[in-house]
Amino acid sequence: MGIVRIDDALRLARESDLDLVEVAPMARPPVAKLMDYGKFKYESAQKDRNSRRNQSNTVIKEMKLRPKIDSHDYETKKGHVVRFLKAGDKVKITIMFRGREQSRPELGFNLLKRLADDVEEFGFVESNPKQDGRNMLMVLGPHKKKSEAKADVDADRDRRAAERTESAEAERVELAERREKVAAAPAKKKKKGPADNMDPDIDL
């Protein structure tokens, strides 16, 4: 509308059944808009709610290993690391040295390298192995962001729910067809045998 007097702007707002909202009070002259302020506040609240819902907080999980871990424990802990990475979380791997194990840091380094290679499909080395006192640390980061991982999990859950619904519907249809076949089949007459015509009181 260009530069107008405040009285004229208020009159335009009343005629349009809208609100006169000042959007840039520090400008010279100040800038105002004609809008439905209630609708504007509602849409702004909706946007804020959606942005908070999609916001993902970075979570760092921790997994502790020993340099001489056996193969079964290693596979179990590796499974946990894969699960964390697939969920979009970072994982801090800690190798704990005890006693004379501290003189063999290559054992921890080799174990961390092996783990990083085993889970490279789901994550990458964000922080290379480094010695920290009696421990050796490494941080793995996920390939997918938290929001992407959550979307994948939700999609997989919806897919499995749809498959269950489809399977239940197929079973229901099959059961209904069986009932219809049984109901449509002619009833079989029972053949009378000799014993059916005998008087039970007659002693043979």
UniProtKB/TrEMBL annotation:
Record key words, sorted: Cytoplasm, Initiation factor, Protein biosynthesis
Q: Name one GO cellular component term.
A: membrane
Q: What is its main location?
A: cytoplasm
Task: Spell out the residue ranges making up region: Disordered.
Answer: 141-204
The UniProt record lists the Translation initiation factor 3 N-terminal domain at: 1-50
| Regions of compositional bias (Basic and acidic residues) in chain numbering | 148-182
Entry-linked PANTHER family: TRANSLATION INITIATION FACTOR IF-3, TRANSLATION INITIATION FACTOR IF-3, MITOCHONDRIAL
Its job = IF-3 binds to the 30S ribosomal subunit and shifts the equilibrium between 70S ribosomes and their 50S and 30S subunits in favor of the free subunits, thus enhancing the availability of 30S subunits on which protein synthesis initiation begins.
Q: How does it assemble?
A: Monomer.
Q: What is this protein called?
A: Translation initiation factor IF-3
